[in-house]
Amino acid sequence: MLGMSLGTFTLLHVLISLVAIGSGLYTIGGMIVGRSWPTITVIFLLTTAITSLSGYVFPANGLLPSHVVGAISLVCLTVAILALYPKRLLGIWRSVYVVSAALSLYFNVVVLIIQGFLKWEPLRALAPTQSEPPFIIFQGAGLLLLVIATILALRRFKPV
Predict the structure, then answer these.
(1) Count of other CB atoms within 10 angstroms of residue 23
(2) Cβ 137 vs Cβ 113: under 8 Å
(3) The pTM of the whole model exceeds 0.70
């Protein structure tokens, strides 16, 4: 794994993912209050890309759902970067950026919830097959919060 043990690579991947989620929440939060923080946004976009790409380095036998989520996230991320930098959020590109950045964040959160229920015993005990109500409630709450945040950001984010 790029010269590291699987455990070290996994830890690095998780830490980068948490930075991506934290900076993504900060970025979306900024949009909701009508602000932009370019440095935090770059950190969000970069760490989200690294998280999605590094997911393909883990050993796997065939295509996994995480690979599909990673690919969709990378498409959303590419659109967000295109809207933000070459298109400079002009016209419809502001809305395209808000939605694609929010979706990129959401896919990271989806993976966090899934991994939490797979790896953390208290959550695994609540939903061992990930089809039980606690898992569905967590996923639904994540989706609901993303939708609300995206709507608020679409209404309030007006870059200068």
Answers:
(1) 22
(2) no
(3) yes
* Ramachandran quadrant class, 91 (left: phi over 0; alpha: psi -120 to 50; beta: rest): left
Half-sphere exposure at residue 114, Cβ-oriented, CA atoms within 13 angstroms: 9
CA separation, residue 110 to residues 115, 119, 138 (Å): 9, 14, 9
- Please say if the pLDDT value at position 153 is more than 90: yes
Contact residues for 19 (Cβ-Cβ < 8 A; gap 6+):
43, 47
The pLDDT score that the predictor gives to residue 2 is: 75
Q: What is the pLDDT of residues 52-103, one digit of tens each?
A: 999 999 999 999 888 999 999 999 999 999 999 999 999 999 999 999 999 9
Give the helix ranges, DSSP H, for 55-132: 65-84, 93-119, 121-126
22: CB partners within 8 A, 6+ apart: none
pLDDT of residue 148: 98
* Greatest C-alpha distance within the chain: 48
Asked whether the beta carbons of 60 and 4 are under 8 A apart, the reply is no
